[in-house]
Amino acid sequence: MQRLELRQPDDWHVHLRDEDILVAVAPLTARQFRRALVMPNLAPPVTTTAAAMAYRQRILAAVPSGFSFEPLMTLYLTDQTAPAEIERAALSKVVMACKLYPAGATTHSDAGVTEIHRLDTVFACMAEHGMVLSVHGEVVDKDVDIFDREERFIERTLAPLCERHPRLKVVFEHITTAAAVRFIKRARPGVAATLTPQHLLLNRNDMLVGGIRPHLYCLPILKTENDRNHLLGAATSDDARFFAGTDSAPHSRHSKESACGCAGVFSAHAAVELYATAFEQAGALDRLEAFLAERGADFYGVPRNTGQIVLERGDWVMDTQISAGKDCLIPYGAGQTLGWRLKRGD
User: Fold this and answer.
1) pLDDT in tens, 288-333
2) pTM higher than 0.85 for the full model?
3) For residues 193, 194, 198 and 203, what is the CA-based torsion angle, rounded to 10 degrees?
4) Do 299 and 316 meet the contact criterion of CB atoms below 8 Å apart?
5) Which helix (H) or strand (E) holds 74?
6) What angle do CA 44, 197, 185 make, to 5 degrees?
7) Which residues of 305-340 are buried (b: 16+ CB within 10 A; e: fewer)?
8) Residues belonging to the active site
9) Residues 6+ away with beta carbon under 8 Å from 343
């Protein structure tokens, strides 16, 4: 197969940051995707509808003319989030979801939720308004090994949450383990999951063997080859509960290559091509369109896109770095060759 014509895709989990990094990365996501669900973990975080609407305007200002791109906004949940804010968000028609970060779980999550039961009235309000809960699924207990945090979160937090709120729509973001795949397959209706390019293509050996590769360090962290195979099997199946969310998370080079480097893999420059690579390796290119462009839209209750993208076979070398003001970003696969290239969008 030399050419793929696909429905224009959506990214159901992306970090666009702000200021210089936003200006650098927003055009990359807009070139790849028609819509993107934008994460709210700025500094300070996007905790109100007014802040989400202002952030949306900054995103649109950073997207070059000629792109038909729609940022879909999220609110950052804290211990102080009130149902009244959820109602404002629902009425705005701009905020699509609320993001649950366990406090301390990942980048800029210090203001996150410390005790999930405190937000039961918020979750009930979200369910009433049909608003999706987007979940970073890791426990932060110091006694839990970093490679076990996702599975423990399922047991301690996510499964009980889904049971307590049977009408709440929940997306288990960037799943990384066979345990997470099993949970989604057994879950009640209204529970789904996103998968990233790096977790479909890599395992923890790729990050650690032969030297530490800080630009592959993300949270949740890369897991085993067995886990990767389960993720790839879920993504390439006909199960509509698994769909694309890149979790593209840019950080300046110096903040990644440091004594205490930031978590995040930056994939927005070639996300569609990377997904295509993973699906081709699994012999499932015929499932790529549903994963990229149909399942997520259906779950979030928005129309499927009507435009198209075209992927053509042909080797190309990914950039070694991308400028962002005075800093630079190191993209996933910097300097490596890919065999698929996004040629145009209609």
Assistant:
1) 999 999 999 999 999 999 999 999 999 999 999 999 999 999 999 9
2) yes
3) 0
4) no
5) strand 70-76
6) 95
7) beeebebeeeeeebeeebebeebbbbbbbbeeebeb
8) 247
9) 310, 311, 312
